[in-house]
C-alpha cells in the first residue's frame, strides 16, 4: 500500500537518519525533493554553486563528526559536485550526496541535463547507488549512511531519477542494511598489538606519527594517554592537526614538506615510528627511500590497503584507532608495571632541536602573513575553529595556529582544493554555532567560491575570512621562485587592480576591512570578532613571503631549506602574550 | 607474474564497471576477465588474470576488497586449482588440408563445430598453454578469426 512518493520517502528517511541540515541548490530533476524539503524540519541551506554545497557539507561533517548531506540537481548540478566528492574521498570525510537524474526511461538518451554521475564519480566515491525503484529507497538510504560513516569514512552518492521521486511507494522507516561484502575490521589483532607494545617499551628513540584517522575514530584521549604514559613525542600530518594538543610538551607539530625541523629531524633519527591513522603521503615522507631510515614501523589503520602501500611495515595492525589504542594502552600498562622509561638522552636531543630550530619568521618589513595568523590565534585564545584554503595560506595557518582539540582544524589535505575553505567554514559554523569560525584564505583561493558570501549573509552565518592577500597564487609563485628561475608565469593576480575585496564584501551585504600595516592588525581582528555577521578581512601582506621551512619535492626530510628564525615573542618580548592554554 | 583472482561479487548494477575501473585507476593491467552467475542467486563470480609483482598483488587484493559489492577474493594457485579456458578458431582449409586439421583437433581433444568449404571452426578447451600450443599447430593453415573466453578456475577440494 502506497503512503508517499519517493521524494517524500527520501526526505523522511533523511530525517530518520538524524539529518538536521543540508546544503543544496535545486533544478528540474530534483524539484520533487525540494518541494518536500519546503515543509521539512531539515534546514536547507541554499548555496550559490553546487561546489559550495558539497564543501559546506564537508565542513559540517569535519566539524561535527556527523555525516554531511547535500542535494543537487542532475547534469551540471551533479558534475559541479565532483571536486567535492574527490576531496571528501581523499580526506575520508563522511558524506551522503544526493543528485537528481533524468527519468529512468530517458537514461542513456543524452536527455537535457543528463550526466552519468555514478559513472563519473566511480573513482572518487566510497560507493554509489543509482536508485531505479523507489521501493528500494529505505534500504539504499540506510546503507548509504552506514557506508559513509563507518570503516574508513567517505562520500556516498545516491542518484535519484525524477520518476523515482514521483513514484508512489510505502515507507515504514529505514530499511535493513544488507552489505555482505562490507565488514570493516574494528578490533586489532591481539598478538600484533602485543608485539607493538613490546617494540614501544624496547625503543630508544620512538616517535608517534598521527594522522586524520585519530580524529575520525575519536581516539585523541587514547593517543594522549599513550604518549604521556610512555614518554612518546607526537608529530602529526596536516589532516591529523588537532588530534594531539600542540600546546603539549610532547608535541612536535606537523611533519613533512612544511613541517617543523624538529619533527622531521626526529623522524630521521627515530628507531621506532608508530603511525596511527595516517597514510604516508608524499607530502609527509619526502624522498620515500630515505624516509625514517633507522625506524621499525608500526602502522595502525582501519584501511588494510593503506598498510604497506607506500612504506614497508614491520608491525601492521588493522583496526579502529581508538579500539586499538585502548587495548595497546592496557597491554603497555601491564608490561610496564611500575617501571618508567623517560628515555633521557632522546628527550634531551629532541628538546635541543626544539630550542635550536624553532618556528619563526622575520617580523621586520611589510605586514607578514604569519603574524596575521599568530594574532588571530592569540585574539581567539586558540579556541576558534579554523578552516583554510589551499597553498601558502593553508601552510601558515597550519604552522602558526596551534590546534588543541580534534575537529578544530579543517583543511583540504589530500586533494588540495582551492575554494574549499570558505564554504567549509559556513558548514562548520552551522554545525558548531557557538564556535568562532575563521577561514584563513589566499586572494587566489577565495575567488574560487566567493559567491558563497551571499549564502553566508542571507543565512546569517557569521564566518570570518582572513584573506592573506599577497597578489599572487602564492605557493605556485614560491615554487617558480625556487625551481623555475623566478619566471612568474600566470601567477600574478594584480593586487590593487582587481578585485577590491572590501567592496565585494559590502556589495554582498557583509563587512569588509582592509589592513595594510602591522599596527592595524589587532584592531581589525577585534572589529571582525565583535561584528555579528560575515566579515572579509583583506590583509595586504608581503607579496613575496615564502613558506619555510621546506623540504623540496623529491628530497629527504633531513634536507630542509629556509633560514632559522626565532619566534616573534623571543625577538620582541613586548609582543609576548600571557599563556592561556 | 600472472595471478588468477576469483572474485565473488554481489550481482548489482555497475559492479563490473567498478572492478574494471579500479584496475585502471590503480594502474594494474587485466590479462583476461570472465564473469558469470554462480550457485548462489544474487552473486556472480569474476575470474581475473592479472600480471603483477607479488607486492602489487597484495594491493590489488586489498583495493578490490574495499569495493562494497566485493564479498570474497581467492588467489587461485595453479597447483591447487583447476583452470579452463575455451577458444574457438576459424581455420582456413581446403579439400587436401582438412584431414590434417581433424587429426590435430583430435589429438588436442577439440571439436569441429562448423564445417564450410573454405574453413572450419574448432572448439577447444583447456589451460592457456594448451590453447596456445593448438594455435601454433594450426597457424600454417591460416587463422581467419580466433576468440577466447578468458580463464575460469575453481579451487580443488
The total count of helices of chain B amounts to 4
Residue share in β-strands of chain B: 35-45%
Structural class of chain B: alpha+beta
> Overall mean pLDDT score of chain B?
93
Number of helices of chain A: 23
Measure the end-to-end span of chain B. 25 Å
Mean pLDDT of chain A: 96
Could you name the CATH class of the largest domain in chain A? Alpha Beta
In terms of quaternary structure, the protein is heterodimer
- Within CATH, the superfamily of the largest domain in chain A carries the name Thiamin diphosphate (ThDP)-binding fold, Pyr/PP domains
Model description:
The complex is a heterodimer of chains A (581) and B (157). Chain A is α/β, with parallel strands linked by helices. Chain A folds into three domains: 4-169, Thiamin diphosphate (ThDP)-binding fold, Pyr/PP domains (Rossmann fold); 190-356, TPP-binding domain (Rossmann fold), CATH 3.40.50.1220; 369-547, Thiamin diphosphate (ThDP)-binding fold, Pyr/PP domains (Rossmann fold, 3-Layer(aba) Sandwich), CATH 3.40.50.970. Helices cover 36% and strands 17% of the residues of chain A. In chain A, the strands form five sheets. A six-stranded parallel sheet of chain A has the order 3-2-4-5-7-6, sandwiched between helices. In chain A, helix 11 (220-230) runs parallel beside helix 14, helix 16 packs across helix 17 and helix 16 packs across helix 22 (521-530). Chain A is globular, with a radius of gyration of 24 Å. By secondary structure, chain B is an alpha+beta fold. Chain B folds into two domains: 2-76, ACT domain (Alpha-Beta Plaits); 82-155, ACT-like. Chain A, domain 2 (Alpha-Beta Plaits, 2-Layer Sandwich), CATH 3.30.70.1150. In chain B, the strands form two sheets. In chain B, strands 5, 6, 7, 8 and 9 form a five-stranded antiparallel sheet that branches. Chain B has a four-stranded antiparallel sheet with strand order 2-3-1-4, with helices on one face. In chain B, a hairpin with a 5-residue loop joins strand 2 (30-37) and strand 3. The longest helix of chain B has 13 residues, at 54-66. The chains are: A alpha/beta (581), B alpha+beta (157). Chains A and B meet through strand 6 of A and helix 1, helix 2 and strand 4 of B.
